[in-house]
Amino acid sequence: MRTPLKAGIAGVALATAATMMVGAPSATGDHQESSSAFGFSLGGSPGEPVAKFPEGPREAGGEIPAELEQLATGGILTVTADNDRATATVTDLTLLAGLEELPKELRDGLQELQALCAELPEDEAPTDEILGEIPGGLKDVINTPESLQELCNALAGGDFTNLAAVEALNAECDGNTGTVEVVNARLFNSDQALNDSDVKPNSSLLPPELAPLIEITLNRQTTQGDSFTVDGLVLKLGGEEVAVLASATCGGPIAHEPQPKQPKQAPIPTPVERSVPVTG
To answer: Each residue of 42-63: pLDDT tens digit?
Structure first.
């Protein structure tokens, strides 16, 4: 049975998905022959902008559309696809600016928790007394000294003007290997920035105890058949996938690049020799 807090977050995710799917092009289901990349996919919508190999376009770019500002703002997107190699880059991106899309109970709880974090002893683990002061539904998931300390580290100095901001995020696949680089990623606009040129696969930006409420994963790696996919950042709210940013897929090398079909030419006519009657 879902708690009210979890149900509220799931509602936000589902509403976002419904908004995104209206007017979005449907997936074609075409067979993935080699490589592809996209900048963002929100609410389960097809990824945009997209690059594909060999059919093309092999390079594409753009920005997060203004109508999606309830979930993401800014964001310069660049994607490329080549033979068994693809890249996707997002720069200057902000997720959930103002946190208005989060349920009020969770938003207020995080802000109260930040004040509680300021009371933590520097050289000692949080006590049971402090754990008992954790507000609202957060008590269900932040229930150990270690999980509280980890979340407090993520909240350090944050003013909660957004959920997350990233200066640069780059995902790349090359055959069946992938890498993700992140530059100045901050949670809740905190003063603690993450910089990592080689993020470990399936890294979480938040304590795992928060996963039922909010989950931000870097370098999600998945395999489906011959295809290997690297997702730079994946955002889930209430267990529902809301956003995928900077995704690259390698589907195996193509030995010989397809050549464009040439139009068939009519056969050259064969001359026929005939005798001509003589008159006179």
So the answer is: 877 889 999 999 999 999 999 9
Residues 133-162: tens digit of each pLDDT: 776 667 666 767 777 777 777 776 666 677
Please report the DSSP string for the chain in residue order: ---HHHHHHHHHHHHHHHHHHTTPPPP------SEEEEEEEETTPPPEEEEEETTS-SEEEEE--GGGTTTEEEEEEEEEEETTEEEEEEEEEEESGGGTTS-HHHHHHHHHHHHHHTTS-SSSPPPHHHHTT--GGGGGT--SHHHHHHHHHHHTT---S-SEEEEEEEEEEETTEEEEEEEEEEETT-S--EEESSPPTTEESS-GGGTTTEEEEEEEEEEETTEEEEEEEEEEETTEEEEEEEEEEE----SSPPPPPPPPPPPPPPP---------
- CA triple 116-120-121, angle to 5 deg: 165
